Amino acid sequence: MMFAGIAMLVLLGAGGYLYTRGHGAQAAATPPKPPELFLPLDPAFVVNFQDQDATRYLQVGVTVMTHDPAAVQAMKESDPVIRNALVMLFSSQTYAGLSDITGKQKLQNQALDAVRKVVADKTGKPDVDALYFTSFVMQ
């Protein structure tokens, strides 16, 4: 009886050791996510666009985020191309289209796609995770 109790304790101890060791290996096997890298596209974009009644102005501050340092470098090297794509995109908007949050979110997604395209053309990968409007003024 005593032998069975000792055997049970040894088995429970070995099982606990293997269980904790296995969970530790899983955590170690998952590589940590690289840090977020932010690149402000300075200066802010200022474009005009025609509304029905008047010429309107849009000023947009843009910051992009990636986890890949190569993408940051590609964006820095392609700054004129990115700025051109975004100026064309921003100036094609209408005041009514940007007056609500849905229009702004649609523009944000289109701007992200435009930046990703430039980065993909440069690096072969569209490694831009997000694009943020850090300011947004319509007049």
TrEMBL record:
GO cellular component: bacterial-type flagellum basal body; plasma membrane
Membrane topology value: Single-pass membrane protein
Domain of life: Bacteria
Cross-referenced InterPro entries: FliL (IPR005503)
GO BP: any one term: bacterial-type flagellum-dependent swarming motility
Pfam families: FliL (PF03748)
Subcellular location: Cell inner membrane; Cell membrane
Main location class: membrane
UniProtKB keywords: Cell inner membrane, Cell membrane, Cell projection, Chemotaxis, Cilium, Flagellar rotation, Flagellum, Membrane, Transmembrane, Transmembrane helix
Keyword Cell membrane recorded: yes
Signal sequence annotation: none
Its biological purpose: Controls the rotational direction of flagella during chemotaxis.
Entry's family note: Belongs to the FliL family.
Protein name listed in UniProt: Flagellar protein FliL
Native organism taxonomy: Bacteria, Pseudomonadati, Pseudomonadota, Gammaproteobacteria, Lysobacterales
